Inverse folding.
């Protein structure tokens, strides 16, 4: 996802600003860009959302259909998460099969939903060992202006909150809301010099040596984590990020309140 | 004989950055090993690698193999991540550029000198010096270039012994390629011996061991006649 | 095995280990002929072979970087490495693991010394127990050193997990199956974290302890990696290996 070669003056500018406690767009270190969450944006989907963080924009669609369970979990539904970095979202994205950046984003989004137990998969069994609900979460990136990770993750849980199990369509009774147990939220931080910045902009993300995404559940416990990029973090930096991430997640979670 | 210690990347070697030399790096005023190798503290601190690919440097004498011919260059494999370029102007005679392969064609071996290496690792070769030439006879083997100093031996003692005992011509390229010519049986034995030196390069008393080995092998060969 | 009632009994785990103990670990450096560097590692039930080729020419050429070497890392599970046959070839899991593992190692490799070249790291999981990705990183790090690639230091990795509500070091397969969290960590010699992933459920306090535990585990593994490299050459090293090269030789 890197824009490959970053002009050195841009890098120096971001680092020197951070050293003075500042960011290029004037935000505080732990401040997110404006966030908007809409749901029900795609009628054909069982659930959908459009999430914007600043100019970054993703659409998430959830489709459900009956399918075969895995042999070792005959009574539980199946989650399949996919993410595409389509060429329309950035001059650096190319068409073709998903590359490792897209796969990583999809898998970390999936990890948050799965590990927090957000979906009550035990209620998605139609016929034990034969038929369960498959939940397809498809993240479509429309505009990449930094921090896709948090946008994808927030979009996924918003779309899931919006999802109705399409029982009618398959002759299984009334449509009901998808049973959810939790609301996992991802918060991504980068280190720029000694500064820890949340919600990196495109330029900040490109000059940062690495990023750390921390996914917490509604109790504030960790459900998933991913360091991405070549750079390093000290154990103390990681502990600090974990701490502020779980606080900040509560702020993001408020954006999802009342959504259905 | 001083035992020299094996170090690995990251081993702390000293506290004086002024002593840092090849195979080391300095961080926070301390000298660390950048390589897996043997540490040498005789004049400064350096680490002699025990393995690794040949990286060309200006002035190296190498054996190259012509891999491709363009209108102005021969592209030469020098047993390295980087190919060497032999420009027509570095060929010892005037070249008709419409017929480059007439002078030197794909698959031929040359003894060349590394004339220049630029920071992006563009490697320029030359044939315009004494001893540099095309190798049209003999045999060639590849060994690890870090073992070359052992094949040469202290002040050339090992290689001189091989040449003298086996009556062979031998050229040792710094890129780990060795060319040999002489009586077939003798060249066979020379190659076996060089591989033995490569395998046992890190053991002590190597010259004596090799002398003994050659003596026995020659003895066996004479008895077989 | 089916889920046992308890995974920790009287402070001991089912394989007899305490919470801070790792499984048996054995590194062997330089085991392959053709590779520039290699390492075979047995880490509990994991059997891992790592090979390094390079620096070498980059194909396709457009992947070249004019100012440094590129590092490529391929984590691959053999189809026979797990209970149920794995379909051969890369899947999404292995692509992600390859990416983060490469990133865990890339920072210590002195890439700027070899512009336009590639350093290829191949990690084959011949038998998988829990923690195959950290085992792969440990073996790859030794193989890179064995290949003579200049590096700032080695990288060591270990996972911490949670079983029966207790944070413990280095889960085995059964613990992993029934455990409630997994935190793979890689660290360089200077204590900087180069890989950090987590799934499952950990409170902030548990996470802090788990990370400290991983740091200690990595330090122990680092010692074993160093030992393996030193052992490859045994005791019989002599000083005159270090003869400088004074040009080629010919008698013509």
């Amino acid at each position: 996802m890197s824009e490959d070669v970053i002009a050195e003056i841009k890098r120096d500018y971001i680092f020197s600003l951070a050293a003075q406690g500042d960011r290029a767009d004037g935000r505080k270190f732990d401040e997110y860009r404006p966030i908007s969450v809409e749901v029900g944006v795609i009628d054909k989907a069982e659930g959908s959302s459009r999430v914007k963080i600043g100019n970054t924009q993703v659409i998430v669609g959830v489709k459900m259909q009956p399918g075969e369970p895995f042999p070792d979990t005959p009574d539980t539904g199946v989650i399949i998460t996919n993410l595409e970095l389509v060429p329309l979202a950035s001059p650096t994205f190319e068409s073709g099969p998903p590359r490792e950046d897209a796969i990583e984003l999809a898998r970390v989004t999936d990890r948050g939903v799965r590990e927090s137990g957000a979906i009550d998969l035990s209620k998605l069994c139609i016929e034990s060992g034969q038929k369960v609900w498959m939940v397809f979460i498809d993240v479509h990136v429309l505009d990449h202006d930094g921090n896709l990770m948090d946008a994808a993750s927030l979009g996924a849980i918003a779309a899931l909150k919006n999802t109705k199990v399409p029982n009618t369509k398959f002759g299984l009774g009334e449509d009901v809301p998808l049973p959810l147990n939790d609301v996992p939220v991802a918060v991504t931080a980068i280190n720029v010099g000694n500064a820890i910045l949340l919600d990196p902009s495109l330029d900040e993300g490109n000059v940062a040596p690495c990023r750390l995404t921390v996914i917490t559940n509604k109790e504030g416990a960790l459900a998933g984590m991913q360091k991405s990029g070549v750079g390093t973090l000290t154990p103390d930096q990681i502990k600090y990020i974990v701490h502020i991430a779980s606080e900040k997640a509560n702020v993001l979670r408020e954006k999802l309140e009342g959504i259905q | 004989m001083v035992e020299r210690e094996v170090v690995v990347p990251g081993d702390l070697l000293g506290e004086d950055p002024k002593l840092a030399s090849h195979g080391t790096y300095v961080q926070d005023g301390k000298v660390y090993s950048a390589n897996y190798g043997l540490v040498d503290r005789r004049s400064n601190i350096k680490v002699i690698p025990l393995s690794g690919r040949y990286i060309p440097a200006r002035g190296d004498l190498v054996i190259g193999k012509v891999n491709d011919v363009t209108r102005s260059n021969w592209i030469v494999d020098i047993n390295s991540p980087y190919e060497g370029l032999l420009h027509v102007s570095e060929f010892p005679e005037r070249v008709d550029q419409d017929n480059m392969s007439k002078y030197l064609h794909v698959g031929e071996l040359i003894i060349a000198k590394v004339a220049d290496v630029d920071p992006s690792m563009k490697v320029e070769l030359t044939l315009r010096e004494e001893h540099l030439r095309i190798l049209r006879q003999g045999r060639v083997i590849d060994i690890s270039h870090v073992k070359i100093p052992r094949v040469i031996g202290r002040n050339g003692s090992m290689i001189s012994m091989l040449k003298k005992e086996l009556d062979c011509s031998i050229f040792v390229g710094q890129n780990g390629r060795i060319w040999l010519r002489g009586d077939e049986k003798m060249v066979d034995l020379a190659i076996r011996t060089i591989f033995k030196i490569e395998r046992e390069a890190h053991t002590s008393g190597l010259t004596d061991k090799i002398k003994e080995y050659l003596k026995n092998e020659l003895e066996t060969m004479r008895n077989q006649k | 095995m089916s889920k046992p009632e308890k995974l920790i009994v009287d402070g001991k785990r089912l394989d007899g280990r305490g919470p801070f103990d790792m499984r048996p670990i054995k590194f062997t450096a330089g085991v392959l002929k053709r590779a520039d560097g290699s390492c075979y590692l047995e880490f509990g039930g994991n059997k891992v072979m790592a090979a390094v080729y390079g620096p070498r020419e980059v194909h396709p050429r457009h992947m070249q970087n004019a100012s440094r070497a590129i590092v490529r890392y391929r984590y691959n599970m053999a189809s026979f490495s797990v209970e149920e046959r794995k379909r051969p070839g890369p899947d999404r899991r292995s692509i992600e693991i390859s990416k983060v593992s490469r990133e865990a190692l890339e920072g210590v490799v002195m890439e700027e010394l070899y512009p336009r070249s590639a350093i290829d790291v191949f990690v084959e999981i011949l038998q998988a127990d829990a923690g195959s990705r950290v085992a792969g990183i440990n073996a790859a790090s030794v193989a890179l050193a064995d290949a003579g690639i200049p590096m700032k230091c080695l990288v060591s990795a270990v996972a911490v997990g949670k079983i029966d509500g207790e944070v413990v070091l280095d889960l085995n397969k059964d613990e992993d199956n029934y455990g409630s969290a997994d935190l793979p960590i890689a660290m360089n010699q200077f204590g900087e974290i180069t890989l950090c992933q987590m799934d499952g459920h950990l409170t902030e306090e548990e996470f802090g302890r788990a990370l400290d535990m991983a740091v200690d585990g990595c330090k122990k593994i680092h010692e074993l990696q160093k030992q393996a490299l030193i052992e490859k050459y045994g005791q019989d090293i002599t000083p005159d290996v270090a003869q400088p090269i004074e040009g080629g030789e010919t008698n013509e």
